[in-house]
Amino acid sequence: MNRKQFLILVVALLVLGGAGIALFWQDVTAYRESGAKIGARLLPNFKVAEVTQVRLQDAKDAVTLVKKDNAWSVQERAGYPADVQAIADLLVKLVELKVTQSEQVGASLLPRVELVEPGKGEGSGTLVEFKDGAGKSPAKLILGKKVLKKDPLNPLPSAKDGVPAGRYVLRPESQETVVVVSDPLNAVEAKPGKWLAKDFFKAERIKTLSLAGEGEAPKWKIARDVEWGQWKFAAGAGDLDPSAAVGAVNSLANIAFADVAVGPKAEDSEKPLVAVAETFDALIYTVKLARKKGGEDYHLTVGITGEPPRARAPEKDEKAEEKERRDKDFAETRKRLEERIAREKALARWTYVVGKSAVEPLIKEREQMVAQRKKDGKSGARR
Question: Is this prediction's pTM over 0.70?
């Protein structure tokens, strides 16, 4: 090799090396601009206060959470109030999410980590998109497969293959830069029922309770004279099973719903049962329960009438200082009760889906409420 050939070779190596360095720094720049640096926040410029809409979508479901007049609602459930705490938790988590891993993944490999946008093929993930008051989208993510971490000390069978420790995430504008974040985001689901505010009515301090078919005479009615008194059939109509009575009352006092029905039709349900509860606060709760045809869930509607007493009945030989304290306690209790009643009356706008187990103690036939006779002829509670 002569001197001229040697110089040509050195120049070629320098050119190729320079190109390689340029490409390397180009990749580094793109990496930095993507916000995908290890340990960095996934959404460094995300402003929670500006978010007025959150939309989640997966292969089966979709839900839109809308903020209006400082109140959140679920669009797919006729504007039913949303779980504000769940939304706040989601927004805070996304602000704090940190990148633990980053790599370039070709489009053909995205289905393997479930990062295909919903509706665009197999292997889709959960799309999370935010909008501000101007309708702009400050952030859009696709949440993919959860990353499992082996935990040999976890004895649960479900932990055999590992426990969720992170999740694959793709920002559609990041040109196939897939990252792994430090949280599996287990609570992020696109089911509308998941995001409903679950505060429900509470029929407390019940005085009488009855059950009847709609438009029919009561199957049974139970009552008690004082709040902590013993339950009996109204008008002395037989021996009541105390445990059955307590079960029915507690069922109505602690009932919960699973979802809000969308466009319910009367023909989709069986004939309703009607439970009526009168309370020591002079309120009347009318609850209709209609079993869905072909299923075990019930459609529930609730109406509340009445008004709590405005004044407290003074006790015998009440002293002046006792009267002042009791009047103050009464006024505070009544104010809280009025606020609760206002919230509960607003629930009448919707029809709710409740599970069979939630209402079973309430919808018993009369013979199931009667105390069973023992062999010695005495009555006793059902076992």
Answer: yes
